[in-house]
């Protein structure tokens, strides 16, 4: 021991220092190794857990076979739906074609005369003998085509009357319709009244087609004046026609003056239509006066009335029959 050289001692002291310095390094490496092992254990446990979770999810979700089966079913359903649509479209187009064919045939039949129809029938019958029979359209298609067709009995109304007022002209008057009523001796026989003694009285006047009773809101009254006194008051709203004269058996308003004819004149309520500034028709029932070709005539507000012609009566008009001094004043009561 005492024979060691100073070089050996220095070498030993260096080795001990090196060992001392190496000890902490080895401890750090051990620690790192432990951390690595713990990390690997954690990673493996996490991996195993995720595998188990994925397995569970896969077991819950449908498999690839189930998915492919569902896809095939969806495809089949789509094909069936498309097939139904195509069939409906074909049926609709066939129905429309048959309806158009029927309408064309009807139009041709309406435009042509009987001779043309006979020729067409003969032509079709000859075609039927030589050519094979064509299939007729189904009954449903025919009924649908008949329903869709709208038959117009006459031409559409013209709009000239609507614009006549705005253009400054007058609307065209409607054509007079045929009158199938009695005329001549037959009309005289039908407009006659038989009395108790067997004699007949022929009426000189009969009401027109536009005769109407006045509206209950319009209270027309006839006041009979003799000088300053009111002799009688007649409510004209109870009927549409008032015959004035001396013939007690047929008249409605008796006038006994000798200058008045048996059937002198008539106060007639008629429905008349007028157009306003917008071209709209406005109808109203108004009173009119007509003289029945009397011997001494009829006066309206001091002027003589032409024979067999309607003149419109207005509020506060005064009428006189023959040479009678009685005055008949027409009054319209004010509305409440």
TrEMBL record:
CDD domains: FHA_SNIP1_DDL-like. Residues 1-44, 63-117 have a biased composition (Basic and acidic residues). Residues 181-192 have a biased composition (Low complexity). Residues 48-59 have a biased composition (Basic residues). Residues 1-193 are annotated as: Disordered. Pfam families: FHA. Residues 242-305 form the FHA domain. This is Podospora anserina S mat+ genomic DNA chromosome 5, supercontig 9. The lineage of its organism: Eukaryota, Fungi, Dikarya, Ascomycota, Pezizomycotina.
């Amino acid at each position: 021991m005492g024979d060691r050289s100073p070089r050996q001692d220095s070498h030993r002291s260096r080795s001990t220092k090196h060992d001392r310095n190496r000890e902490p390094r080895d401890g750090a490496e051990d620690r790192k190794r432990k951390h690595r092992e713990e990390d690997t254990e954690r990673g493996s446990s996490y991996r195993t857990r995720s595998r188990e979770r994925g397995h569970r999810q896969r077991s819950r979700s449908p498999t690839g076979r189930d998915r492919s089966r569902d896809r095939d079913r969806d495809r089949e359903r789509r094909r069936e739906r498309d097939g139904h649509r195509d069939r409906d479209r074909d049926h609709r187009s066939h129905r429309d074609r048959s309806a158009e064919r029927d309408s064309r045939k009807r139009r041709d039949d309406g435009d042509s005369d009987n001779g043309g129809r006979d020729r067409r029938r003969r032509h079709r019958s000859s075609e039927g003998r030589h050519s094979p029979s064509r299939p007729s359209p189904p009954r449903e298609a025919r009924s649908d085509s008949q329903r869709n067709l709208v038959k117009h009995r006459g031409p559409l109304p013209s709009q000239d009357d609507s614009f006549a007022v705005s253009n400054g002209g007058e609307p065209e008057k409607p054509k007079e319709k045929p009158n199938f009523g009695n005329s001549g001796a037959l009309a005289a026989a039908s407009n006659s009244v038989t009395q108790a003694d067997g004699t007949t009285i022929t009426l000189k006047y009969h009401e027109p087609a536009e005769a109407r009773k006045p509206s209950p809101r319009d209270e027309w009254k006839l006041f009979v004046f003799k000088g300053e006194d009111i002799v009688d008051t007649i409510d004209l709203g109870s009927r549409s026609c008032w015959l004035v004269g001396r013939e007690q058996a047929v008249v409605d308003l008796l006038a006994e003056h000798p200058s008045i004819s048996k059937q002198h004149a008539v106060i007639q309520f008629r429905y008349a239509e007028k157009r306003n500034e917008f071209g709209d028709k406005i109808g109203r029932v108004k009173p009119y006066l007509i003289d029945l070709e009397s011997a001494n005539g009829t006066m309206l507000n001091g002027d003589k009335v032409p024979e067999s012609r309607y003149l419109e009566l207005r509020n506060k008009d005064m009428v006189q029959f023959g040479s009678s001094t009685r005055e008949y004043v027409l009054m319209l009561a004010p509305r409440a």
